[in-house]
Amino acid sequence: MTVLPAPSSLERTGSRFGTLRTRVAATVAALAVTGAAGAVALATSSPATAGPGSVVVSESFSSGSLPAGWNAVDGTWKVENGRLYGTSASSSDNNKITFGRHLNDFRLEATMRFETVSAATRWASLGIDVPADGATPWWIATMRSGTTAANGLEFAQRTTANAWVVTNTASAPYAAGTGRDVRVAVEVHGNQARWIFDGREAMRTNSLQRSADGVQGLFVNGATVSYDDVTVTELAANGYLRPKGSPFTVIAHRGASAAAPENTLVAQEIARRGGADWIENDVQPSKDGVPFILHDSTVDRTTDGTGTIRNLTAAQIKALDAGSWFGPQYVGERVPTLAEQLADLRTRGGNLLLEIKGKHTRDEVATIIKVIRDEQMTGRVFVQSFEVDALRYTYELAPELPLGLLRSTLDADPVAIARELHLTAYNPDGNALLAKPEVVAPLHAAGVAVMAWTMDSAGLWQRLERIGADAIITNRAAELVGWNSAFLQRASADPTVEITSPADGARLDRAQSPVIAIAATNADTVTVTLDGRKSAAGRKLDLAKLTAGRHTISVQVSGPDGAATATSAFTVTVSQAGLGYLVLTSGADPGAVTAMTTKLVHAQYAELATYADRQAGKLVPAEVASVIAADARTLALK
Q1: What percentage of the chain's residues is helix, strand, coil (to nearest 5)?
Q2: Is 241 helix (H, G, I), strand (E, B) or coil?
Q3: What backbone phi and psi angles, to 5 degrees, belong to 204?
Q4: What is the CATH number of domain 54-234?
Q5: Residue positions annotated with a catalytic role
Q6: Helix and strand totals (H; E) in the chain
Q7: Would you state the CATH architecture of domain 249-489?
Q8: What DSSP string runs through 521-538?
Q9: N or C: which end of the chain has fewer CB within 10 A?
Q10: Which long-range contacts does 404-413 make (Cβ < 8 Å, 24+ apart)?
Q11: How far apart are CA 408 and CA 431, in angstroms?
């Protein structure tokens, strides 16, 4: 096992630059949970530090004992037969073992198997943020043995009051049951995480409350569970990049703007309940410098007032009705201040993609950042703007905040400007992006996510998914959440290939005539080789012309979503029956066939080999004569 020590405080600050984009497949209203973790850091001895891609923990339990640095807090934990076994005697006991070190961005994965359970509701978990001594509060990603239940998978917190707060639930495609290995993983970026069940994303959360020093752990409740191949890998900070096979990050444009008055707290609440991962809103200052959430430069369109926002005081803006224009049920909705919006997100859940709207001075940007910091939301706000100066000021004043550049048309070199402005994301008009999709790959290679605006149809979402966009800013957030759910249920588009004939490990004699048979899916091209030479699916193998021994068929297929390979090795065996087939089908002179058959029947293999050599190119075709002679000599040695 490899355990690397915790990073310095400077490195921790750097790790806050990215937060995993969350993906919620069901309607969730996240609840606030109070309490900070008073964790005890797990000590390590090496001065080295990890970085993105570094494996921080790798344990296969081959030593026969608990690994060094693993702390069995409670319950029974032991290593047997190359696995870690945890036993919880009662459903009221949340037994745990802790390990690793504090990380902001990481992937924890393990092979888990329920050995025995007291009921299908009992569970095992991956500990996401756990004090090394096991004290509350802690966060876990849970799997029940009855995994297909509506709450078969969960993200949950155990509070300091020993109460449960379950923020997200989902069902798995099949039941874990008992005696079955399941490969599970959780990817964490700050307060956000993805639950991955047997290689497929099943659920997301944006409700984690991270401690300053929590580590990783394994949990068992009312069961005996075995674990194997536990790894912890540090991830790059930019969790906004969409992993292969995962759906979009859903960003609700001005809140649920298709269902409620834009840029209001009710629009924010509806978007949150609809499963949006992020709320996108606009910020501008009042005459007296208070940042308000408003898109237009005037209040005319979205309130019952008139005038430019910068010419109205905060008191005047707060007196306006911002809901009646949209519908009578929204009469009395107000234009929220940035502080009010952030407080709502902090206490009720959610993240903010905040557009600094229009030209702002450095002091005005500083006021926005002060509000974000005062509301303790620096880890949950992403700043974007069309205004380059606003982004430069933000980076100077708050380098911990991720930045996105809004563009109506694409830059000649998006990667260059992303580097210049320290961007986490490049956020172009979706139609401009679809017209030039080749910009996505170099941005991803540079570690920059791509967020497209404002796209409101399934046809456009499908096209953006194909070119690799990471997030969609949309007026139809709830519909995109549903589209994402369907996306997760689709059959994999990855190419697959299998060689069905000859089967791997087959032993064939000369009399058999197998055909190369390939089963492939999602493949546009299929390339087949036999012993490194080009061949083809459907080709009948002439075993009379192959040397005795091992031969290998290799197949490579490719499609729009990748490539796949397969190999099958078979052996051409030497037998009396096979040699007889060679002689009878050799095309030799009838007299030679009679002579060779007589020697074969009497097991005169050495004489047969000599005869075939002597008549090669005369009474027996040369190519087949050499094979007959070689097989006869092999039989003579048996």
Answers
A1: 25, 30, 45
A2: coil
A3: -135, 160
A4: 2.60.120.560
A5: 253, 295
A6: 15, 31
A7: Alpha-Beta Barrel (3.20)
A8: ES-SEEEEEETTEEE-TT
A9: C
A10: 404/353, 404/451, 406/355, 406/453, 407/432, 408/432, 410/436, 410/439
A11: 9
Closest CA to 572 of 600, 551, 595: 551
Phi, then psi, of 515 in degrees rounded to 5: -110, 135
411: number of CA atoms within 13 Å, CB side?
A: 17
Write down the pLDDT at residue 26: 29
Distance from chain centroid for Cα 52: 15
For 379, phi then psi, to 5°, come to -85, 0
Distances (CA, A) of 334 to 210, 254, 257: 32, 14, 15
Q: Which two tokens stand for residue 363?
A: 């002091």
> Rounded distance, CA 621 to CA 612, Å?
9
Low-confidence ranges of the chain (pLDDT < 50): 1-49
Pairing of strands 215-221, 123-130: antiparallel
Going from the C-alpha of 379 to that of each of 24, 63, 208, 373, the distances in angstroms are: 19, 40, 11, 9
Q: Is 395 helix (H, G, I), strand (E, B) or coil?
A: helix
- Amino acid letter for position 468: G
Q: 3-class DSSP state for residue 242? A: coil
**Residues facing 389 on adjacent strands:** none
Chain-centroid distance, C-alpha 130: 23
Q: Using alpha carbons only, what angle is made at residue 357 by residues 428 and 288, rounded to the nearest 5 degrees?
A: 170
**Inter-residue contact 317 to 335 (CB < 8 Å):** yes
**93: three-class secondary structure by DSSP:** coil
Instruction: Find where tokens 């899916």 sit.
Output: 521
What dihedral do alpha carbons 135, 137, 141, 147 form, nearest 10°? 90
Residue 545: Cβ within 10 Å count: 11
pLDDT of residue 79: 97
Of 234, 251, 203, nearest in space to 469 by CA: 251
Contact between 469 and 443 under an 8 Å Cβ cutoff? The reply is no
Structure tokens at 336: 């929220």
The beta strands (E) that lie in 461-591 are given as 471-474, 496-501, 507-508, 517-521, 525-530, 533-535, 549-559, 562-572
Could you read off the pLDDT of 422-457 as tens digits, one per residue?
Answer: 999 999 999 999 999 999 999 999 999 999 999 999
Q: Phi, psi (5° rounding) for residue 531?
A: 55, 40
**Taking the CA of residue 347 as centre, how many other CA atoms within 13 Å lie in the half-sphere pointing to its CB?**
7
- Per DSSP (E only), the strands in 395-465 are 403-407, 425-428, 449-452
In one-letter notation, the amino acid at residue 413 is D
Contact 476, 275 (CB under 8 A): no
The encoded tokens of residue 41 equal 């850091």
Q: Could you say which DSSP state residue 29 is in?
A: -
Phi-psi region of 378 (alpha: psi -120 to 50; beta: other; left: phi over 0): alpha
Both tokens assigned to 26: 């069901």
Give the pLDDT score at 251. 98
Q: How many CA atoms lie within 13 A of 519 on its CB side?
A: 6
Nearest to 354 by CA among 342, 343, 364, 362: 342
Closest by alpha carbon to 241, among 26, 364, 425, 457? 425
Tens of pLDDT, residues 234-245: 998 888 999 888
As given in the structure block, the two tokens for residue 437 are: 């999709």
Q: Around Cβ 82, how many Cβ atoms within 10 Å?
A: 13
Backbone angles phi, psi at 366, to 5 degrees: -60, -35
Which burial class, exposed, middle or buried, applies to 379 when counting CB atoms under 10 A from its CB (0-12, 13-18, 19+)? middle
Structure tokens at 617: 């190119």
